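User: I'm writing a short methods note and want a consistent example. For Glyoxalase-like domain protein, I'll paste the sequence; you return only the structure tokens, no commentary, since I'll be parsing the reply automatically.
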Amino acid sequence: MSKMIFVNLPVADLKASMAFYEALGFENNPQFTDETAACMVWSESIHVMLLTHEKWRTFTSRPIPSTDSSEVMLALSCDDREAVDKLNELAAKNGGTADINPTQDLGFMYNRNLADLDGHVWEMMWMDLSGMQE
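Assistant:
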């Protein structure tokens, strides 16, 4: 089996969060979805597990961060700059927040940050290593 990552995120409203991630292009895997959790697939190796607060608390007693804090910034690579821009626009149109940090454009690398409905931070980025200065 190839190596995979499952990012687990606590969410206040599972159905709304599923709709948000589907709007960004994630696909739901019903095999790992029920009324307490949803598996949202970005690629063959990247999966996001959306967990109700009750389900989350079965894994840890640590507090759930507030929506105005940042516990981590997760970066996803995109095919081009336009895809980065599109994902930020889709986030804003679907209840998330686009551009929570300043856009970074280094020529060979471009990124914009968005937050989902629960304030989880995602960095959508594109990089062309052939254009990078040595």
